[in-house]
Amino acid sequence: LSSGIVLLSGLVGMGTVTAGTVITTLPPGFRPDTDMLFPTLNGNNYRSLTIQANGDVVVRGGWVQTYITLDGIAFPAAGVATWTEIGAAGSGSSYANGWANYTNPVWGAAAYWKDPYGLVWFRGLIDGGSRTTDDTTMVNLPATHRANMQQHNNVVASDAFGFIGTRTTGGLDWKSGSGGGWQI
After folding, report:
1. Which residues, in sequence order, are bridge partners of residue 39?
2. Fewer C-beta within 10 Å: the chain N or C terminus?
3. What is d(CA 32, CA 55) in angstroms, rounded to the nearest whole number?
4. How far apart are CA 100 and CA 54, in angstroms?
């Protein structure tokens, strides 16, 4: 889009689906700042894929040979977003309930950005927090970056389906039924 947001759409199918397979490569100008994970469907199964900073769209583990949907995948192109690291001094954000940045540098620091339209975007992985109670806060956000009503968002949780809640108080919440391990 003219705003610098990249939107993907369509189905890819019947190719090799082993972990690490590159299914396509996005051209320069249509790539993210850092590697990013996205939830998707592989047939009727929840799976995840990686879009790497070099443009490669890569299959992760557990896939079956059928279609992969790219519908709904969106991210700011490299250089478009001014990311604010969660917990950065003066940001008004913080981790909560034992959650912290997942320290693999390939994903970049967990961060957020509010685009010119008022939408808040997230990147990076977080891990280590409490997963025992529904609506447990993972990240506190400044009031200017919180949802205007409660929402549930599909995410990747250790290469499986997960979801995160957003509320008018706090920020990002772990939702019961979400997969274990790291979240995005």
Report:
1. 48
2. N
3. 8
4. 26
